[in-house]
Amino acid sequence: MSSQRVETSQLQDEFPDPETADNVVYNPTFDELRVFAKHDETTTEYGSPSYISEQKSRSADQTKNLVDDEFTDEDWASIESALDGVGDYEFVCLDRMVGRHPETSYVCRLFVPKEFSRIALSWAKLLEPAQGEPDFQTLQLPDWDTQDGQRRRIRILPDEGLTFVLGSDYTGEAKKSFLRLYMYRAKQQGGLGIHAGSKRVRIEGEDGIEEVGQAFLGLSATGKSTLTGHGCWLDDPEGAEMLQDDVCALLPDGQVTGSEGNGLYIKTDGLDREEQPALYDAATDESAVFENVSVFEDGTVDFDDTELTTNGRAVILRECLDSAAEDIDLDEVDQIFFITRNPTMPAIARLSPKQAAVAFMLGESIQTSAGDPDAAGESIRVVGTNPFIIGPEGEEGNRFYDLIDDNDVETYVINTGYVGSPDADIGVEDSVNILVGAARGDIEWNHDERLGLELPESVPGVDVEEFYPPNQFDDYESELEAMREDRREYLAQFETLADDIVDAVY
């Protein structure tokens, strides 16, 4: 068997034609999908469906793409076998649009066996209907690894726009199969795909209402959705609107275009009405879809119960989120925040463009259940806080630096965890006050020689002294120097990363 038995361009033609195939239900309604998935459903107290998947998170270790990885003979055989066997299934197939902007919008087509219609129901609620031939196609066969001799694998052919999810029934695999390719195409166009949320903050200035565009780069479950979707407790005519929650494209002219136009795929663990009122209200609407959330036989939902998994999810509709704007594209980004949970970092620091490129490359945080439940709580580094990069990671850092420098974007690192110990916990109110202070320009910055960063002299509503790292460590200088040396060694592995970025380690 050769390592590539067919031309990859021919694989697109081997997908079923949903308009003519006898075994495909094409573009069913939400109600029809819910009927198809009835055998898996528990109905919540809100009237919404709840489902349990076998896989509770993405299968990162079983994922390869043809740009960065070599496919084995077994990989190619699995892809061909999956396509050869599509006639053995009854499918649901849906077409949806990723993005709205003319330069970053793509028709996406998902095939899922009808018995797993719950996956299609959740995924379809995230995106808007589409027409035309698909730019991207995904074939998801959740029961693949139950067949003799087969094991779970996710294989991506980026240039062909094809993804094969073989052996996982996790909705996140369907979602990211398209967003991964969306980000790849953005980079090919001179921009950069970013794992980020975006919002528009309206602030009253000397000349009337001013709009400040903010974007938040962060790993799943570090507070990205919370900060992006928060209304910031601003009173009209001031306010804040969420444009995008998860994946965006940073374009050469400074625009940040969104990907998901209809819904959000949020973490539900610990979802609290007081701290996250907008997300809570949307999640408890009948239109939501729960995945791996604790729901009792009588339909009662317990967001604090993580016995099933610490990666409970809900698909919520934008129309149910008070803070969601009608549009998903940001005309201009003014401020970018890197979300971290590194306990040695302050609550907020302002970065130079090269330091921002360092922060991008470090992608420092704490592992969450969305990435690897077994390692939750451990320190982690993910370039761009983006586990879905295709291509050399060093080039991503160089591109990020060029884009923010060319567009004069202010950049910050914001800690949503704690400083030193849980006693110095940074709450949602602290983080929101920081965002508002940054948007207003109310923060006075001073260069701190010990940290090598610009830190706030004060932030309205925040005790910055409590979150000053040297106050929380017995020997912070030693801690910081060890971390800097470790950061330098880490960045040295990226051969294509510019030297002057490596030299900017803080």
Number of extended strands: 28
- Total number of domains: 3
Query: How large a portion of the residues is in β-strands, by DSSP E?
Result: 25-35%
What CATH calls the topology of the largest domain is Phosphoenolpyruvate Carboxykinase, domain 3
Q: Unreliable stretches, pLDDT < 50, 5 or more residues?
A: none
Reported for the largest beta sheet, the result is: 8 strands, mixed
CATH class value of the largest domain: Alpha Beta
* Number of distinct helices: 12
Mean pLDDT: 95
Secondary structure topology:
Blueprint: H1 8-11, E1 24-26, H2 30-36, E2 42-43, E3 49-51, E4 63-65, H3 73-84, E5 91-98, E6 106-113, H4 117-124, E7 128-129, E8 136-141, E9 153-157, E10 162-166, H5 171-188, E11 192-194, E12 196-205, E13 208-217, H6 224-229, E14 239-244, E15 248-250, E16 256-258, E17 263-267, H7 277-283, E18 289-291, E19 294-295, E20 301-302, E21 313-317, E22 335-340, E23 348-351, H8 353-362, E24 364-366, E25 379-381, H9 393-406, E26 410-415, H10 428-440, E27 444-448, E28 453-458, H11 476-491, H12 499-502
Helix pairs in contact: 2-4, 4-5, 8-9
Task: Describe, in plain words, how this protein is organized in 3D.
The chain contains twelve helices and 28 strands. By secondary structure, it is α/β, with parallel strands linked by helices. It has three domains: 184 residues, Phosphoenolpyruvate Carboxykinase, domain 1 (3-Layer(aba) Sandwich); 214 residues, Phosphoenolpyruvate Carboxykinase, domain 3 (Alpha-Beta Complex), CATH 3.90.228; 58 residues, Phosphoenolpyruvate Carboxykinase, domain 2 (Beta Complex), CATH 2.170.8. The strands form seven sheets. Strands 1, 4, 5, 6, 7, 8, 9 and 10 form an eight-stranded mixed sheet that branches. Strands 14-12-13-22-26-23 form a six-stranded mixed sheet. Helix 2 packs antiparallel against helix 4, helix 4 packs across helix 5 and helix 8 runs antiparallel to helix 9. It is globular and about 70 Å long. The N and C termini lie far apart (51 Å). The model has no long low-confidence stretch (mean pLDDT 95).
